[in-house]
């Protein structure tokens, strides 16, 4: 009995100590809702619609506030001014990658997306340089995208105008572009390895956007102790890593240091150059993780945007008609669209920007972290603190974009019908951690969509008015609902 009382007192003291330390820490951080022990503010956040919860909390606590998703605090940046001040004006201090425990089990601080410090800087710099050398934003990459657009058209013709779910076909096109950059060659759409890669990617995005994944990331102790969809995610990631290492082995056997064919060749050459450097970041493990980062980022976000784009073009046939009219006027029917055409197509440019604004693909982007103790707006944010940036708060800002919940290309057109930029339009985030593949993604969206509309009329098997464009999940990525579409040859 006495032992039970003693243990109860010890536990009570530990709980009070934890609450005192948390309270002491909170006094220096931005304001926010009072967290509960262990679970923090998790009950005050809708894990199916985090953006709405952040918007509601910002109305109470302002554009910079603290949220406890579990035991650790996260500082939330809501609205253009707060995001700009942090990610641009204090870019270096906010350039860290926040905690993402599920991926950390596999990536171990390597690659581009989830790394930090010296590794991140070196691998990002090398990746950007290599992609540019292979033509990102230049003619050679544009040729690859145009070739893939033509292959995509041929695949769509095989549907014979019958209703189909476009998810798989639209995923194949951007996947093949990134495969040609990383692995040298594209795949046939029926290749079994290719099918496996695509299925794993589609499955991973659904898992990452689920409420369960938010729980796993905020309570990492359960990752190794409870079953759930996160185990399937990790299995898929490990499978892709094995595939990458097999490709690396093949590349080593046929490597010509004077004639690199793709990203893997360039990485292997860099490894050889750095082999005597004990602090070198260029290793087989890092190559596999970096390749997986490029593959996932270069495939799924673009294919999801393409899928959402077609859904919106079905929903708003009057918008589609205006885009097709511009295609006929600027490009015609007898040549492939090219990036030079975009500057002569303001309405199409506005539609593409509005699609990315409206769908809000990555509502809170990937978590950031501060790289040092920083005084920000009179608050002290300790080194390593996770920072959540609400991209939704800018893309759906009702002052910059009147009636933001309405799909309206006019948001990006001036009174003369010319394209109008907006600093609030940052679907690829901003600052030091801006998406490495932004240029490639914008190129693919323009060339794929204009090529599709050049060759097909889009028809919905149901009345366009009955199409729902509301995302079915938006925890990590905004996933569009399933729909059927008919591609009718022009």
From TrEMBL:
GO BP: organic acid metabolic process; xenobiotic metabolic process
Protein's membrane topology: Peripheral membrane protein
Compartment(s) of residence: Endoplasmic reticulum membrane; Microsome membrane
GO CC terms, sorted: endoplasmic reticulum membrane
Entry's EC annotation: 1.14.14.1
UniProt KW keywords: Endoplasmic reticulum, Heme, Iron, Membrane, Metal-binding, Microsome, Monooxygenase, Oxidoreductase, Signal
Gene Ontology molecular functions: heme binding; iron ion binding; oxidoreductase activity, acting on paired donors, with incorporation or reduction of molecular oxygen, reduced flavin or flavoprotein as one donor, and incorporation of one atom of oxygen
Main enzyme class: oxidoreductase
Needed cofactors: heme
Pfam families in the cross-refs: p450 (PF00067)
Signal peptide positions on this chain: 1-25
Annotated positions binding heme: 435
InterPro entries linked: Cyt_P450, Cyt_P450_CS, Cyt_P450_E_grp-I, Cyt_P450_sf, Cytochrome_P450_fam2
Family: Belongs to the cytochrome P450 family.
Listed name of the protein: unspecific monooxygenase
């Amino acid at each position: 009995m006495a032992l039970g009382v003693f243990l109860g007192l010890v536990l009570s003291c530990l709980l009070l100590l934890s609450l005192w330390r948390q309270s002491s820490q909170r006094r220096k951080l931005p304001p926010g809702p009072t967290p509960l022990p262990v679970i923090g503010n998790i009950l005050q956040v809708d894990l199916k619609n985090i953006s709405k919860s952040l918007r509601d909390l910002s109305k109470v606590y302002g554009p910079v506030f603290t949220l406890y998703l579990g035991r650790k605090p996260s500082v939330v940046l809501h609205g253009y001014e707060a995001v700009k001040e942090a990610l641009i004006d204090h870019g270096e201090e906010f350039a860290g990658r926040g905690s993402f425990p599920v991926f950390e089990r596999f990536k171990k601080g390597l690659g581009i997306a989830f790394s930090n410090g010296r590794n991140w800087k070196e691998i990002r710099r090398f990746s950007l340089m290599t992609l540019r050398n292979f033509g990102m934003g230049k003619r050679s990459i544009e040729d690859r995208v145009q070739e893939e657009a033509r292959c995509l058209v041929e695949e769509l013709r095989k549907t014979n105008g019958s209703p189909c779910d476009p998810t798989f076909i639209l995923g194949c096109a951007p996947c093949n572009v990134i495969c040609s950059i990383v692995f040298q060659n594209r795949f046939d759409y029926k290749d079994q390895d290719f099918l496996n890669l695509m299925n794993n990617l589609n499955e991973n995005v659904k898992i990452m956007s689920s409420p369960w994944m938010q729980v796993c990331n905020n309570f990492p102790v359960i990752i190794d102790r409870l079953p759930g969809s996160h185990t399937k995610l990790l299995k898929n990631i490990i499978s892709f890593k094995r595939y990458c290492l097999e490709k690396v082995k093949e590349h080593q056997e046929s490597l010509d240091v004077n004639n690199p064919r793709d990203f893997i060749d360039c990485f292997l050459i860099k490894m050889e150059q750095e082999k005597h450097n004990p602090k070198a970041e260029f290793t087989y493990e890092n190559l596999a993780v970096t390749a997986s980062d490029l593959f996932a980022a270069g495939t799924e976000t673009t294919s999801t945007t393409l899928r959402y784009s077609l859904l919106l073009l079905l929903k708003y046939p009057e918008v589609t008609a205006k885009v097709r009219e511009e295609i006929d006027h600027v490009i015609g029917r007898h040549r492939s669209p090219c990036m030079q055409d975009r500057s002569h197509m303001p309405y199409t440019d506005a539609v593409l920007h509005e699609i990315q604004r409206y769908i809000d693909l990555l509502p809170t982007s990937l978590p950031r972290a501060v790289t040092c103790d920083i005084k920000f707006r009179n608050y002290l944010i300790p080194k390593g603190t996770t920072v959540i940036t609400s991209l939704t708060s800018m893309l759906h800002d009702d002052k910059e974009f009147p009636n933001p919940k309405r799909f309206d290309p006019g948001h990006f057109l001036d009174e003369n019908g010319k394209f109008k930029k907006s600093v609030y339009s940052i679907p690829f985030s901003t600052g030091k951690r801006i998406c490495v593949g932004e240029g490639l993604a914008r190129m693919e969206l323009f060339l794929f969509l204009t090529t599709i509309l050049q060759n097909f009329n889009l028809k919905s098997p149901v009345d366009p008015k009955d199409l729902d464009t509301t995302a079915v999940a938006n925890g990590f990525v905004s996933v569009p609902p399933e729909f059927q579409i008919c591609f009718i040859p022009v």
